[in-house]
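Continuing the series of single-chain predictions for the mutant panel. This is the parent chain; the variants come on the following pages.
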Amino acid sequence: MKIIALEEHVVPRKISEAWADTADRQDVSVTFNRYGYTAKLEDVGEGRLAAMTESGVDVQVLSLPAPGLQNFDPSEAVPLAADVNDMIAATVRGSEGRFEGFATLPAPDPAGAARELQRAVSTLGLKGALLNGRVRGRSMDDRVFDPIYEAAAALRVPLYLHPQMPSQPVRDAYYSGFSEQADIMFAMGAIGWHYELGIQLVRMVLASVFDRHPDLQVIVGHWGEVVLFYLDRMEMLDKAGLGLERPLKAYFRENVHYTPSGIFSHDYLAWTIRTVGVDRIMFSQDYPYQFAGSGGARQFLEDAAISREHKVKIAHGNWERLIDPT
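Parent structure:
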């Protein structure tokens, strides 16, 4: 059973240096990479391939993690995006099928991002793009980002929506007061990231992004970034007079796909299948931040209490159908 993992990260040294040079505009998550991840994020050779084999992953879809290029000025972000995408494409070409890639987009320049997505897909052969939530103070539903969504829909490629750190006022209000380490973890992977991206996704639905771009397909990790667990409750928004073209639940079942991001919970898997169906679920490990050695990634799927047909869909079938619907 071939396993394709979709949220697997790479950070070229040039990007790490650019983050360091603009530290006053980046969030604290970039410093997290120093804790044993920098070398693994840079490596696209034997070390990464050995880790993939150990965990049971056959193919990684490479992407630049949060905060990506979203806190750079447009003039900085555009050339950096081209450099990252050229590097990922070259890695894919030389990998003998072990790697695919998501483009990095210069989201601070939405028109430039749309052009770069076109180049990355049509010329470089990348499979879509990964976006890291807000662009400074702008939420993802802001109409300024419509060129990106229009381009993705026209190219029929997905956008993977990845969390980033909540804004500083939110961190101060909700995720502070313990210790430096605890505050950062609380605002990041413990829970803050997931509410942050979940709210961005809901805002995209409520602001009619998917009505304006009905063919747009997005992917979210961490079993839906909290949203799926409150989907029944959020149905009350159907009565809020927003003028949406479909019931709220329909968007989460027709425009959104879901991955585990290394949260290998059979309870979460069962809930997600019940809520949106197995055809909306794909695989991810979130390497190198999450790593299930000794075959753990593969074992999660092998042990799941679902049919072999459904395991194959999650392992690779749903992804391959999404990027090649013919």
